[in-house]
Amino acid sequence: MAAIRVDELCKSYGDVRAVDGMSFGVDRGELFGFLGPNGAGKTTTIRALTGQIRPDGGTISVLETDPVAEPLETRRRVGILPEQGSPPSFLTPREYLEFVGSVRDLDPDLVRRRTDRWADRLGFESKLDTLHVDLSRGQQQKVMIAQAFVHEPDVVFIDEPLANLDPLVQERLKRFLVSYAAGDNAVFVSTHNIDVAAAICTRVGIVADGALVAERSLEGDGSGESLLEVFVERVDEAGARDLPTTDELADD
Amino acid sequence: MTDADSDRRGPTATLFATLLREEWRLHVRLFGGWRFALFPVVVAGLSVGATVALLRTGTASERIVGWGHLLALGFGLYSGTAAFTGSDMLEGVFGRLTFVLSSSETLPLSRRRLLGAFLLKDGLFYAVAFVLPMALGAAVLSGLGPRTPGLVATAWLSLSLVFAAGMALTVASIAARSRGVPVWLSLPAIGFVGVLAWTSGYGAILETALVPMVGPPTSAIGLSVATVAVVAASLLCYDPTYGQPTRTATDRFARLCNRLPTDDDALVAKTLLDLARSSGGVWKPFVSAGVLLVLVAALVGVVDAITGIEPAPGVFFGGVLGLSAFTTYNWLTQFDSLEDYLVYPVSVPAVFRAKRIAFVLVGAPTVAVPYLAAVFWFEATLVDAVVGAALLAGYASYYFGLTVYLAGFDPNEFLFDALRFGAFTAGVAVPLVPTLVVGFVVVPPSTTLALALAAAGFVLGVLGYVLSSWAGPRWEQRYRSGVD
């Protein structure tokens, strides 16, 4: 049974079709990369899959829950790292993770132990008692990563995981994501960064103008074509709005 | 805007025009063009209606003009104050609120110039969208005739000047804060200057200066020069490199959660800590309620001086102080947004429930202190004090429910939506106006009337609870559909 199943998903905002008949599946053990240009519908898809918005059509399932009918149950079982991931708050990271543990019904002692482990892993031990609003964007991102994993969910949705992080932490996080997915979990990573996707993902889906235009396994792929070439070619073929074509890029 | 346009205008004019356009589009996106465009019409209607009502009750024109200017000064203080009491928003002003303002980080534009252009834009924007419709009330004072346009124009200029003076005071406090002077110090400082002026016999001069249209031209010129000088000095004093020093805190979340006897204790605790640790701390709601108390007390004095009638203080203050529910709720939602909660297994109704509990915890002492001060100061009878307390509890709950239902998580933004503002005003007026009339007519309230008023308070309290309960599902549906 797939951890994530999407079938003919549609979502419009007024006249704009943000997601237009998207279908794909992600199994446990996969680190699935969701690649696409700006405005391709990546964030809308994540928001639909986590019950934050109600789709206009199609069916979706996450860990055998229906995010449309039972959004709280879905969000209870998954972790979410939103794109704009720094809610303005006057809690310290320690208190913020206690807050997350509390709304997720976790044992306080367990939360304390996991807080220390995440602070050590991402390097924010010295900031545990600093008000969240006074942290740098990178430190805030680290805290938000920790909250997405503090309950050790079976499925994690991550929107731009490496934004604002220094190279050392980026490397640590990439390795962690690979090992986390290998532990029979599903990790869904939305990103613009093709190099990151190529380095860590087991499979990628390429989206343009709200539709999935290609899927490609990155394990033992012998096509000889780089992920960047596939991306540019497929997005170009889809005629995605507001994007330069490969011919225009060549002219430049 | 074309490049040729930019070249002709120069960078400051281009910046100014872009800021104005951004302001317009921000409000149009929030409410839709016609609902925003109708907002001045609603303000004009309220201004004309209030002037007619005051004239009919025998209030002198000079008094009405004076109160209008006091209101304009208050609005000026409020609208310039992205950073007055809630000074954590100062950092937000640059970057989070508008795209153009964040351009000092990427374009060769100084923050001082940006702040100057921003203030000028705000002043002009409010002068047209808010103060001009306010000034239309002056048309009622003279009756329609050939002199009316001139009188309205004079009232507009006079009110705009006072409005700008209020903004200038705020800007001065922002500038002082950027030099490390705590913003709250400006409150007693302003109060001290006011009291000193009044007690030393200069109160009349102060009053004349703040109502330029009735004073000599020199007072208007003096206020204009003073306003420009304060703004210029503030811009010079403003330290663009200012940033909040890093703050730390001991872990209070778990202890606070344990003390709260509610199911949504984590959500309530987060709201309370956000309020307590932001600039101004837990005193912000008290300051807002205190300002309301002073205004109402002054109104009682004015009415007493004009008509010789003193209202039943319990009924009167109980009805009016409930309005502080709006400002208290505003403070409780200032530092988070509903979208932030949607990444947790938390429903929107649960978030609103938590805000209601936080509102009761913060709002009860916030209104109790000024209410008790009022009933003791004005020597209310026991029955009057008790029924006033019942009204206060019920009306505060109702105003809270009305605000939450109409405005969701953004009570400040709905002020410029004509429909919501009109609905809110009507929703407030329907119970409040009859209560105030009763408070003036039957002094002290009879037992029968007291029971009826207490019953009205109870019914409105329940209605407020119901409205705030409906707000959760209503706003959840809107957010999940992607409307907001």
From TrEMBL, chain A:
SMART domains in UniProt: AAA
Keywords for the protein's UniProt record, in alphabetical order: ATP-binding, Nucleotide-binding, Transport
Lineage: superkingdom: Archaea
Molecular function as annotated in GO: ATP binding; ATP hydrolysis activity
Record SUPFAM superfamilies: P-loop containing nucleoside triphosphate hydrolases
Domain ABC transporter residue range list: 4-234
InterPro entries: AAA+_ATPase, ABC_transporter-like_ATP-bd, ABC_transporter_ATP-binding, P-loop_NTPase
CDD domains per record: ABC_DR_subfamily_A (cd03230)
Family stated for the protein in its record: Belongs to the ABC transporter superfamily.
Matches recorded under PANTHER family: ABC TRANSPORTER ATP-BINDING PROTEIN (PTHR42711), ABC TRANSPORTER ATP-BINDING PROTEIN NATA (PTHR42711:SF5)
UniProt name for this protein: ABC transporter ATP-binding protein
Organism whose genome encodes this protein: Natrarchaeobius chitinivorans
UniProtKB/TrEMBL annotation, chain B:
Segments traversing the membrane: 34-55, 67-87, 123-144, 156-176, 183-205, 217-238, 286-309, 315-332, 357-378, 390-409, 421-443, 449-471
Domain of life: Archaea
Presence of keyword Oxidoreductase: no
Alphabetically ordered keywords of this record: Membrane, Transmembrane, Transmembrane helix
Keyword Membrane: yes
Protein name: Uncharacterized protein
Originating species: Natrarchaeobius chitinivorans
